[in-house]
């Protein structure tokens, strides 16, 4: 696997969101957007809303115009967003997208 120079940038941004979400005061973290390409050819943009005044969530926007918003749910490792038969689970730059009975691995671009 070829090293990806974006790894520290996205990882640092997501770590900052997690840190700011736990910080007290009125500071509010900004949304973070990342593009993903999946092994089955699926592509989408994920916009992460950090927890704060409201629960954290991710909004997935697909090229065909379809949009899915998933609330953040409990995860032992990584970030997990799920509702109904849709789930997006991320760890580092990778993730798994499940819609219905279809699951695919994805990498951030």
TrEMBL record:
Keywords: Lipoprotein, Membrane, Palmitate, Signal. Residues 36-102 form the C-type lysozyme inhibitor domain. InterPro entries: MliC (IPR018660), MliC_sf (IPR036328). Residues 1-29 form the signal peptide. Gene3D superfamilies: 2.40.128.200. It holds the Pfam family MliC. This is Membrane-bound inhibitor of C-type lysozyme. It comes from Kaistia hirudinis. The lineage of its organism: Bacteria, Pseudomonadati, Pseudomonadota, Alphaproteobacteria, Hyphomicrobiales.
């Amino acid at each position: 696997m070829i090293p990806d120079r974006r790894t520290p940038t996205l990882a640092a941004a997501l770590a900052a969101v997690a840190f700011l979400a736990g910080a007290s005061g009125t500071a509010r973290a900004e949304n973070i957007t990342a593009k993903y390409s999946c092994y089955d050819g699926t592509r989408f943009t994920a916009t992460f809303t950090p927890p704060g005044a409201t629960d954290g969530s991710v909004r997935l926007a697909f090229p065909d115009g379809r949009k899915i918003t998933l609330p953040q749910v409990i995860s032992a490792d990584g970030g997990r967003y799920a509702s109904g038969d849709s789930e997006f689970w991320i760890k580092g730059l990778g993730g798994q997208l499940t819609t219905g009975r279809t699951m695919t691995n994805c990498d951030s671009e």
